[in-house]
């Protein structure tokens, strides 16, 4: 199944039923975002909640690095489309708009779960400040001209870091591209690669960045036809039952994080024998994302 670089996802059949299998890349130690069994753990913990996730059916720690760890999960029917990024029309405009609204409400449901009730009290907590540093570490490893000026953006973010909220389960990459939906109904939240306990607004800022047609400036069948960022933010706040302070800063952090993650993807792509032109085409967006982050954090 199409996807990212830190783990591999396969469609398969297992004991007579369709499944999806997540495998860490072989040859590398399965730590941090490559630790696929950490994904299985949170999915198991969420199984009895109102947050839909595929059912984890089997786990194998393997013998890394040669034999990577993997887990097997139920195959959930549905599509995962990022309406303002992917150039694919898989639902009507109205259905896609409802999907975005459903996603905003579901994100509030996720953030409403008490970590203690999920037996996550011992899990380390990440503060917004640590989020900045995490993406700085990534930015230090890429070709500097790709992301010129990122240090200034990091400094502006540091100077205005809001007080953290009570930690909750943060997905880390919550957007329609990581949800499976049929019609307007969200069937499963996928891709728990970078979940953590932390400030819920990290997810909100990221979700809103991806729901804003100006972030990546792409033209898709849904451009200009999705609910506004303001509407989605209001919907989230209403579902969460509280006002969401300092959202602008978290949108800035999201733009900064996107510049960091995309610059890493560009770096890896350039090392390939045949680089993907679509990835290289993201290069001009990196500067724009940093400008956006600077504007929002000022
Ligand atoms: N349990 C599942 N059932 C059906 N499809 C899945 C399942 N898990 C993943 N997929 C499909 O595989 C794609 C990639 O999976 P994802 O977990 O988002 O990994 P990544 O984006 O890191 O490659 C998803 O967009 C989805 O289409
Ligand atoms: Mg994904």
H/E series, N to C? EEHEEHEHHEEEEHHHHHH
What is the global morphology?
globular
Please, what is the average pLDDT? 96
Give the percentage of residues in beta strands. 5-15%
Which helices and strands occur, and which strands form pairs?
Layout: E1 8-14, E2 17-23, H1 36-46, E3 56-60, E4 70-74, H2 93-111, E5 125-126, H3 128-139, H4 150-159, E6 168-170, E7 179-182, E8 185-189, E9 196-198, H5 200-210, H6 213-216, H7 229-240, H8 247-270, H9 277-280, H10 283-297
Parallel strand pairs: 5-9
Antiparallel strand pairs: 1-2, 2-4, 3-4, 6-9, 7-8
Helix pairs in contact: 2-7, 3-4, 3-8, 4-8, 4-10, 5-8, 8-10
What does this protein structure show overall?
- The protein is α+β, with helices and mostly antiparallel strands and 298 residues long.
- The protein is built from 10 helices and 9 strands.
- The chain has helices at 36-46, 93-111, 128-139, 150-159, 200-210, 213-216, 229-240, 247-270, 277-280, 283-297; strands at residues 8-14, 17-23, 56-60, 70-74, 125-126, 168-170, 179-182, 185-189, 196-198.
- A hairpin with a 2-residue loop joins strand 1 (8-14) and strand 2.
- Helix 4 (150-159) runs antiparallel to helix 8.
- It binds adenosine-5'-diphosphate (ADP) and magnesium ion.
């Amino acid at each position: 199944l199409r996807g990212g670089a830190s783990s591999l996802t396969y469609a398969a059949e297992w004991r007579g039923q369709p499944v999806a299998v997540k495998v860490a890349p072989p040859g590398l130690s399965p730590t941090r975002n490559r630790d696929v069994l950490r994904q299985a753990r949170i999915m198991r913990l969420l199984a009895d909640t109102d947050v839909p996730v595929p059912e984890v059916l089997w786990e194998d720690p393997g013998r890394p690095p040669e034999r990577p760890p993997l887990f097997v999960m139920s195959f959930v029917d549905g599509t995962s489309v990022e309406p303002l990024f992917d150039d694919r029309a898989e639902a009507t405009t109205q259905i896609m708009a409802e999907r975005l609204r459903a996603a905003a409400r579901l994100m509030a449901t996720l953030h409403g779960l008490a970590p203690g009730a999920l037996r996550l009290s011992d899990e380390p907590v990440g503060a917004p400040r640590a989020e900045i540093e995490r993406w700085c570490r990534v930015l230090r490893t890429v070709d500097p001209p790709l992301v010129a000026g990122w240090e200034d953006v990091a400094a502006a973010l540091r100077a205005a870091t809001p007080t953290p909220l009570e930690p909750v389960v943060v997905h880390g990459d919550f957007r329609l591209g990581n949800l499976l939906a049929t019609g307007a109904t969200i069937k499963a939240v996928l891709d728990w690669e970078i979940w953590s306990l932390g400030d819920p607004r990290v997810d909100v800022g990221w979700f809103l960045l991806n729901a804003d047609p100006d972030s990546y400036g792409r033209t898709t069948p849904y451009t200009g036809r999705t609910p506004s960022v303001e509407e989605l933010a209001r919907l989230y706040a209403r579902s969460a039952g509280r006002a969401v302070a300092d959202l602008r800063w978290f949108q800035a952090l999201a733009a900064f994080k996107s510049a960091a993650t995309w610059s890493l993807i560009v770096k890896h792509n350039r090392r390939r024998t045949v680089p993907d032109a679509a990835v290289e085409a993201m290069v001009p967006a990196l500067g724009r994302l940093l400008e956006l982050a600077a504007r929002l954090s000022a």
